[in-house]
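User: Mind token order:
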Amino acid sequence: MSKHIGVYPGTFDPITRGHLDIIERGFKLFDELIIAVAHGHSKATLFSAQERLALIRSEIKGYKNVRVESFDSLLIDYVKKKKASTVLRGLRVISDFEYEFQMALINRKLAPQIETVFMMTAESFAPVSSRFIKEIARLGGDLSAFVTPAVAKKLKEKYRAQKKNKQCGASE
């Protein structure tokens, strides 16, 4: 009997409590869950792929049968390469559904044997998006409801370094 492998793809820039909610609930559906970090994505990211991989690995170290990898290809090609049967996608709000639905239909055209499963995030995480979290962090706000303390620390360090670099560049 073959293993049922799922792939949970995303940029995870940074990983949020909403992502962790999907991982915690999603890994129970599969023999193995691969968290696939998009490396060369059209979105500009704050953290490098290596930094995002490290953050995620530190957040999920207690989970068995969950691994973290990066990919720099068409998602469906990566899923096939990993011999996975399912793409796991988290939904927060209605606008997520429209985008995710279109992507699932395209993926089905490219690989009809691979299913997409949508999982609603817990309602407490519905408004949480990486974009809003980065803005809160940049402006020095409280991140505790949105990310773990380790992720909050990394965000603060990243923005402090950016601010310092801008100040050094302006004084030259």
